[in-house]
Queue: 2 jobs
Job 1
Amino acid sequence: MLTLTNVRKTFNPGTVNEKPALLGINFHLDPGEFVTVIGGNGAGKSTLLNMISGVFPLDSGSIVLDGNDVSRLSEHARARYLGRVFQDPMRGTAADMQIDENLALARRRGQSRNLHWGITKAERAEYIEALAALDLGLETRLSDKVGLLSGGQRQALTLLMATLQAPKLLLLDEHTAALDPKTAAKVLELTDEMVNKSQLTTIMVTHNMADAIRMGNRLIMMHEGQIIYDVAGEEKSALKVSDLLGKFEEAAGGEFANDRMLLG
Amino acid sequence: MLLALQGAVSQGILWGIMVLGVFITYKLLDIADLTVDGSFALGGCVSAVLVVEMGVDPWLALIAGTLAGVVAGAVTGLLHTLFNIPAILAGILTQISLWSINLRIMGKSNVPLLKVTTIFSAISDVTGIPQATVSMIVGILFAVLCVGAMYWFFGTEIGSALRATGNNEDMSRALGINTNTTKMIALMLSNGLVGLSGALITQSQKYADIGMGTGAIIIGLAAIVIGEVLGRLTPGKLRSFWSRLIAAVVGSVVYFLIRAIVLQLGMDANDMKLLSAIIVALALAVPVMWERYQLRRSYSKGGE
């Protein structure tokens, strides 16, 4: 489904701010895999997702998605394969547009847009059903502006928008990090539901190690632009937070994992 | 006085077409496009030269003025999207170059349309209605047409994508919208309307002048904010899209009424630019002050 070959990225090359972010990532994801990604700040987790979604151009290497080499495609062209949810709930939705308008935009992801009416009656019925499944009471607020919703509601809506038209790959970039614990739990629950319903291939970046172990069927740990640990299946589900902390310690060169890794 | 006010109303409506153009970039795309000053004069110059020197049908000259505006918008769009020049600077660059281009087009700084047929004189000749009234009626017709067309367009898939781009670019790209394309379309449409307005004004006032677009963007912004303030004062609050468009045109009429009244009261015409700037600053400041007042009042109620 997704194959990264020797993907490299350095920010601000040739300047004092030079920052190697990804040091030749090789990574393969099979259809239906749900991988969680952990690692300290600056490990390259978000950069990895941004490279896959085309926010920044590659320095070298290739990215093959669903059999298509997308390495040189622009961000909007790759969107046809990808559903994305960002850390900031404000980034995933258009605040001044209505809930149904946002959904209609998402439903047309990857399709050519023309002068047909932007949203049809039949769609609205579909949206009411999908919103009702979120259980947040949004199904009666179709023509409310999204800016009126809470962060958690917006994030749930973004998640729905990302999966409304089943993506080849779902990218979740710390999508619960900005939410309060209760709302975060709700959004994670919805994530699980949606991924399971359509057997979506998913990459979820998180800072919460317990979530990383509990969710999905594979886990990778990143450190300084490299994947340093990759487990799947039973070995993964048997992991404990202490195991992961041990791995962090190992990666940090014997020293105890610092605050940045634990709290960041 | 009454005559001056009627003139102000029709002027306000014809300029209202330009305000609709500014609405696209300022309210929907969220950029202040300074091309407007240049493309307004461009629309006027092109239609004047076509009618006066080439004997072109005044209706065709309107279309040509519109297309010239579209091209000007495309230039700003290319500077902005292809070369990543900030939108404001891209607009200034186009605006400055249009000053020279407009002079080249006219060959002088001013082209009178006194002895030629304009759309307004033609209609007046056929119907017998005085030209001042014709200006108003034609203005209203054009405004209604433009509002209708914009209401339709911004409801379509492309129009929605354009609104999304102005709202949240990251999201738009993540949803597969080519934001460079939508920005180009917005700038072209916007300046097309501005060019049309310039051409209409030229035919209505019977001259094109190199300086006719100077400060147009300020008039556009003033009209939009006046319209919004008026909308806020109405009971229904005017939230729907078409009412926001109509409010922009009404704002333009109110702007020109204010202008006519203060000129009538004996203000020096040269002070008009200062007054325009003050109107814009006030119109932008009032909502902010109002919110601050509301906030303070809600605090002082307190205790709940």
Note: The mean pLDDT of chain A is 90.
Job 2
Amino acid sequence: MAAPLLSIRDLTVEFHLRRGIFTAVDGVSFDIAPGEILGVVGESGAGKSMTGSAIIGLIDRPGRISRGEILFQGKPIQNLPVEEMNRLRGKKIGMVFQDPLTSLNPLYTIGHQLVETIRRHLPMTQEQARERAIALLGEAGIPSPAERIDSYPHQFSGGMRQRVVISLALAAEPDLIIADEPTSALDVSVQAQIIKVLKRLCESRGAAVMLITHDMGVIAETANRMIVMNRGKIVETGSVGDVIKRPREDYTQRLIKAIPSIRDETIRHAVPAADRPLVEVDKLTCDFMLSKSTLDRLLGGARSKTIRAVNEVSFSIPKGSTYGLVGESGSGKSTCARMMVGLIRPTGGRVLLDGDDVWAPGAGSQKRRRRVQMIFQDPYASLNPRWMVGDIIAEPIRALKLASNRAEIEDRVADLLERVRLDPASMKKFPHEFSGGQRQRIAIARALSSQPEFIVCDEPTSALDVSVQAQVLELMRKLQDEYGLTYLLISHNLAVVRQMADNVGVLHGGVLVENGPVDQIFDDPQASYTRMLLDAVPDISRVN
Amino acid sequence: MSTTPPESAAQIAASTPPGWFRRAAQSDILYSFRRSPIAMVAAFVTAVLVLAAVFAPFIAPYNPFDPSSLNLMDGFTPPMSSSFAGNYFLLGSDNQGRDVLSTILYGSRVSLFVGISATLFALTLGTALGLAAGYAGGRIDSVIMRIADIQLSFPAILIALLIFGIARGIIPPSRQEGMAIAVLILAIGLSNWAQFARTVRGATMVERQKDYVSAARIMGVGRFTILFRHVLPNTLGPVLVIATIGLALAIIEEATLSFLGVGVPPTQPSLGTLIRIGQQFLFSGEWWILFFPAVTLIALALAVNLLGDWLRDALNPRLR
């Protein structure tokens, strides 16, 4: 192997906090060879982003590099003065961050930003730089770059913007690119394209990449070598194939086992056949009215525009089974869920629960409150931070007057906490004392406390780490067996849906493009959109 | 598979729920308080002034409002000296022979009472209207907030004067004296509610979008329960900050009104009234009659204001 481009020796980053010293990165050493793609994977808090920030000198107080060396092309760079570091960033080391919305300046055209970056680092005239910028955008897959170069960032979609960010990072021909979760904010189909662009561009320009991500699938498809980090330390290093197929360390094995794959076939209990499905959705439609501007309203002129978020969606869910609803952002899956639980009134169509319309006044909505519950995506926003866990879980019991005796409520809450594998003493604590996965268990306990039959789960695990995700999914499955629950599982993660669902519906632009048993949809998709979606998913089983 | 292992030392420490005392002792607010010398001094000054006002009848060397104890022979005694009648005055005495220290103690009692009551009134009114506007939205929101906007475009003191004037016109002269303090509280409170309404409305609009409110709606929790048990507690942080800074403003507003002579009746002088009385003697050499009440007012308003500033920073996670 040639001399390494970047060499990190015993890097330690510490945060001096009020309650003591927190070591975010703990004695990390690794090399990146020129032109190599190194994947850094780990769960949240593993120190992977902090390692990236340390390399480019972006660690903010109270954090600091307390030990170790960062050698770039043989020279130590961890103590460079600010000006030299600035020159190094951009010229020699490019950066791609997670959020394409905030990494471009919204006030300048992308051409302006590209030309400025190119001219700062390379001796070029305005015209040459502009030509180069157009070429870069073209290579990054922006159609007709010569026309789009004078557009502003908001005129591009998220995926297109991330392509611009990548061209920006590559503009000055850097030797190393640090990409921190470059595709995590994007839909799967866009994610796949961005990974390809990143890989192709870096290969053609000989730039090395340090790819930081929590998604093992992305690494499997992109990187040559990978590092697994946990709690600030490197757990395992090796070629991608070796680590994924033959993980040596205990932690890596557990991590890989926890990742669901879209090729996994899970054994499901046969769902008892019922005469009539528990939930029937019939031509459900939802229009959103775009509010008119005040001037328009005063003039009474322009008719208000409507957007059809959900368009005549119909499906049914047998009792005791799980229906997976998949789709990309903006496909209307959350709107569907909100109409089914009674949060958004449908414009048309019906949702029947055991034969009763949940939106009908009286019996229907009464039944809905008793028998339908929901689990939300963000376990930080779904629990009232000022309430004790015991009160949060007891809320449905009190709201529906299922019990009024204090001791009885407490018993029920304790029982529910045990069922979601939390200590009953947690009752007296507040949500902020729990981790994301534990909070999601509390949310599940709350959903269960009114003994519902049907639970709508809107992205229940997408805010969680893979190992925690596996535990939560396992818990959901056990509870389904115990109580005979019926789930509607909404997810953008196809692997999760494959693992959990009996039947699957694919939403695209508010229309249900495909609907059927899970194996049929995944193994023999009919709609071209479904096929595209399935092909786009990065998967660890694709490693070669 | 059991529960996830505790992820940090903090979580292990939190595994046994501590009592409220330890919770308070470990809280971030207290920590930030102990690291801010300004906040500690401000809290000390506020505490001393409030305690002195509350226990005025026990601390004050004289009762300045007991006509039988007044002696014109005591008039215009300079600070730290004895009068002809042989009475000692630490901060001097005024034209009628009242002890300045005692009038200040009794005066800050009135000032604080009016200030706190007016702020509580503004807080209750503003929070209720802000909650209604933020949660209901639409027309209710527009009406309430436009009224607030109109009111905010006038100086608060002008609104208070207006309300005071109207009250004078309505209440029969024989009862005006007895109701003066109530009218003052009403006037100052009504001139300050809009700040609370704006803040609470904004916070309500943020909170009502959160999933825990959706969860409550799904289980059929009533609108008022959601408002008061879910949304309200989560909007109280900023309200507390405004209330503290608002208290300082209300005290100054009361002093201004009393200085102008439309505030509290002369039989119950507040700090503002004392300043008005003292102001007549400023250029004839009896400076202490004005100086000490003015310093007390400044110290009180400044200390409360600094406490409010510190509280705002301490509650704002972005500044930590």
Note: Chain B is about 70% helix and 0% strand.
